[in-house]
Model the fold of this input.
Amino acid sequence: MSAIEIAGVSKSYGAMRALDDVSLTIGGNAFFTLLGPSGCGKTTLLRCIAGFEEVSAGSIRLLGRDIAALAPNERPVNTVFQNYALFPHMTVAENVAFGLRMKGVPEARRRARAARMLEMVHLAELADRMPAQLSGGQQQRVALARALAPEPEVLLLDEPLSALDLKLRQAMRLELKQLQEETGITFVFVTHDQEEALTMSDRIAVMSHGRLQQVGTAREIYESPVNRFVADFIGETNVLPVLVEGVEGGRASVVLPGGARISCPAAGLGPGAHHLSIRPERIGIAAGGPLRATVERVVYLGTDLQLVTRLADGTAVQVRLQNSARTEVPAPGTAIALEPEEGAARLLAD
Amino acid sequence: MRGVRHYPGFGAVTAGCLVLLYAPLVVIAVYSFNGSASITQWGGFSWRWYVDVFTGPESGRFGQAAWNSITIALLAATAATVIALSAALAMVRAGSFRGRSATFALVNLPLMVPEIITAVATLIFFTAIGLRTGYLTILIAHITFCIPFAYLPIAARMQGIEGVYEQAARDLYATRWQAFRLILLPLVMPGVVSGYLLAFIISLDDFIITNFVKGAGMETLPTAIFGSVKQGIKPNIMAISTMLLAVSAIFVTLSYFINRVGQRARG
Done:
């Protein structure tokens, strides 16, 4: 059964639409990520699921049950807050046991469970500390343990890694994914960091301006973005203005800047002016390629080299080359021909 | 940048203010230990006026007045703190509602209205509704003007506590009441204690309003002192005043430190 079904959910604050007709199904035992820039509505959606915000329209079902009428304390979901919100006047163990205490679990049992949860996040020895005595990374683990202790059906995580430094953030990604698999609880993870989303998620929902843009696996979203926003937001990409001449059998005949024609999936678009996305690592130098460009700059990135090139019409195209002894690197000023790999060129809806 | 301390004449003005404020208190405190019955001639150090307060001819009157003052202050501070806490919850936690600014002004009105006006108005009100002046009317009046003093530290403290703690509690299956009692109340407690102590002292010290609404034969410590002074200042008044001063100083200092400890624990 799907864990959460969101159907036509909208949320307005006065004239501002934070969520605009969002429909989404989140499967059970999954790591699901809501991804988007700040202000896209991802946190609002999370707060609607938790019960801190009321939806203006639509419904949210949790394990098949409509939860609109339930207060936050009546919903079998727990939240890891962005700044953790550990209760400053309680010890770590008391924090972790709080949910069980509210559920009426006897003291001995909740103490044992809190100890087990703290072991799971490797903080057993800090049980009697106060939250203010912990580092940011430790507080974050306590927040996780506290939210997981009552065994919720769904765990909501609101940018929990954003306050940590880079090294810790990377380590926590793997740990979070592992925790999700160990516990079998559905995680709904909110982030604006596409790398975070790509590395952890089973499925990702990309949001912008309160609307759902695309839902899919990391690979689907990266390799087959459905519109310009998704292509632009996830990873780096080259966006070329193109003309679709005709569509036949699901494939479009596309005129590139410079006049060369290529064929690519039509993606449901008709003839006319459109945009084409090609990832920098999926385009290479090839004699006789359809795109003529001039090298402007070569940027050294360690494992990779980045060529900044420009087409005759002024469109910039970036190319990633692997930094190996076999790679021939053209000097700035050289005229080259570029060719997208098979299946790399994708038409984008606006 | 040069501090205000370096302005010409700063030291002299400060000294002048301090003398004006505290010299009378020092005189009273010193002369309360005067060995002679004079209030101007120093007759050597003695505890005799303190002994006189508790055993002298006026000790019964002062004892009853002190009892009234303290019980009224305890009850008024308790009631005012509970009301102030509820008001703070509505003002700080309930978000914006119609009449919020008006409510804020209303809660703090006693701080701004001249006390004599409040005193007269309160007396007229009690007379109008036919309530006989006495212990009860003093108590009601005290609760009213103590509210803003309890409210200010509580509201200030509550404003500093993020709402996310209560949300986290609600999220972890706490009811509204549990979130208040187990999370918000302990966090806001330094403000509550501070407000309670302030309200207690304000009630204990009040003279003007009390004098209007107390009725015949009913005395609190300040009105008893005033009544006694009308017949000439005796050193035992200085002893009582000094004791009141000490109690006030202790409470205000306590209130200050409790607030500061809370601030630090939160940081």
Summary: The interface with chain A takes residues 162, 164-165, 167-176, 178, 183, 186-187, 265-266 of chain B (CB under 8 Å). DSSP finds eleven helices and no strands in chain B. The radius of gyration of chain B is 22 Å.
